[in-house]
Specification:
Blueprint: H1 3-23, H2 36-52, E1 58-62, E2 68-73, H3 80-94, H4 99-108, E3 127-132, E4 135-143, H5 147-162
Antiparallel strand pairs: 1-2, 1-4, 3-4
Length: 167
């Protein structure tokens, strides 16, 4: 075997466990669905973060089944971001993980490429499950700027419910 082939093989063997960890779902069970009043709080926090940074965003909160509970869109936010925000939230709740974990798995290649074939998976940062008392009650999805900025706003929103900065 050539040394290049050996290096590639070693790299692949080391990468597979990392990709599996990135794709692992959160161990949290589903709880009661988030209420309308509770859903307004993370949306307000995400929009405040966006306004502070002069980003225009659409923000959605869904329940444990991925059904829209609450949505707001800032003026001049691109039209497509409305649906993308909902899709990110839905993806985060049905797959029980932040969409950033899916993005990272996809970027790692190899087995992470499976993300492209998972129904309703949105492997783009900006969707985070919302957790109360260790149970997933819904998810927040944010879209409108670079995905890393969407993620910053989603973290700000999720922190209102989750109590800490979510990742």
């Amino acid at each position: 075997m050539s040394s290049r082939l050996i290096r590639i093989s070693v790299f692949a063997v080391l990468l597979i466990p990392c990709a599996a960890k990135l794709m692992a779902q959160m161990p949290n069970a589903y709880g009661a669905n988030i209420t309308l009043e509770a859903a307004k709080k993370p949306v307000a926090a995400a929009l405040a973060e966006a306004a502070k940074n002069k980003w225009t965003m659409a923000v959605a909160v869904v329940d444990t089944g991925g059904t829209l509970v609450y949505f707001e869109k800032m003026d001049n936010t691109q039209t497509a971001s409305a649906e993308v925000a909902i899709d990110k939230a839905r993806s985060a709740v049905i797959y029980k993980r932040p969409t950033k974990a899916m993005e990272d798995a996809l970027a790692a290649g190899g087995n992470g490429l499976r993300m492209l074939r998972l129904r309703d998976a949105v492997p783009v940062e900006g969707g985070i499950p919302l957790i109360v008392d260790g149970k997933i009650i819904g998810a927040i999805g944010v879209s409108g700027d670079k995905s890393s900025n969407d993620g910053i706003c989603a973290v700000a929103g999720a922190a209102v419910i989750n109590g800490t900065a979510a990742k």
